């Protein structure tokens, strides 16, 4: 007993030493949540709400790191500690170094597995790494992955020693803004609409044990409110002979709603009598339990999930199409949400901080968020599902290779390419489309996502209608906005205009598509003491110097929205933006989330008129 207590004290002393050695770096502004981050508590939440298991190990915390030239081999000695899952450029990483395209970022971590995991297949999950990753376990190469926004998994069972400490090494390359990969607003030279790059691990790393014989890897859930049923497709980790069955149970809290049994990798339709529909006003979620059995009737796996019964569609009203939720017209009004943080960049300091942004957006009277050229972690979507806020999901833009003098991007379509460039572009397009498909596949079940946006304006835009048709085949349950704020294409469901003037341009009405303002607003108001860099140009599309001027400008734009909705058939609008981001000061909140620039109650009351039925008979 005395030995165990001594060992525990040693562990606590070591952990306390780590905590004392760790601290955020730099002199930038921080959110209040940054002060609460430690190596022991960093991002401990289960990372995959749509497919949960009881047993798992979180590998977030302090890892060793080294930033070396690409031509150097795997380091024998590392340069220090980095706090995962924060990118190396961020304050919360504890490093705060800029990475260049000519460098390679190395990580190393030791871990131990519980004794009762020895008979299981062990899966190593990376929720997101920017951009190209290679992984070794105990010195043996396991595999590689390219893409900054999707989860990837390696079966590391055969690489484990199983008798003590195991070692994981990760190498990351990142072309940043010199490459053609999907990267959103990252650029080495920041300013204007371009932000600090994100390199390396930026979402949770974790382990889970599954049965060696068979396990579930995914479940595809499709609600159908027209026929009062939900279609469930449980998929195995790898194909197996027939005879593996999955029992599917639907719950309303603790009450069983429906049950069914289906062969693995086959879909089953499950009736839902008198379904409770998901909406921003009533974000009801059904719970789902799946149990996998082998041909002998032995239970091999159990996972939990959830879904919402809802339908997104278009409906003709008078002379134009309008957006509908559950067959009822509903105006979409939301914020353009970049998902950036002064302390963690792409990674919020905590789950609580991430949820705060969504809660504040909802409290302000918005019912939608346009997630702008970034894909968040799965828990962000879970909070949107639970809180009841619709999501327009952008595909992160890529293949933007040349900026104009004003800092805006130039589409690859406007550039003359050599034969070598064309080959590179073909490779980039194939990678872009693979990542686009991954984004849709991984988030297919998310009730709050109501629209996919493959292209923002002309950023890297190409083969638009072919890509839109591909999205519609992948996911016929949602709307597709072909190119937000750019040239009209004869495909997709949305006519989208961006308008940043003091007087908003009116999108034309359409008998084929819903007319929306995909971006508007952008009213800048810099708040002293809450600026990313007081010395840089802090800008908005219009700039004001007081809360009153800001509110007056906001009211002027909002009154135009109301008129457009009532008399011009406008279906939706996206206000730029949720928070300030680096040099952009057009947020409703400051970058550190410490100042709300317009009172929440004022916004809530103002916005409510958008969700009321129109006097002329148009929908809500």
TrEMBL record:
Pfam families: Glyco_hydro_2, Glyco_hydro_2_C, Glyco_hydro_2_N
InterPro entries listed in its UniProt record: Beta-gal/glucu_dom_sf, Galactose-bd-like_sf, GH, GH2_Domain-Containing, Glyco_hydro_2_cat, Glyco_hydro_2_N, Ig-like_fold, Ig-like_GH2
Domain Glycoside hydrolase family 2 catalytic: 352-484
Residues in Glycosyl hydrolases family 2 sugar binding domain copies: 103-172
GO biological processes: carbohydrate metabolic process
Family, per entry: Belongs to the glycosyl hydrolase 2 family.
Protein name per Swiss-Prot or TrEMBL: Glycoside hydrolase family 2
Origin organism lineage: Bacteria, Pseudomonadati, Bacteroidota, Bacteroidia, Marinilabiliales
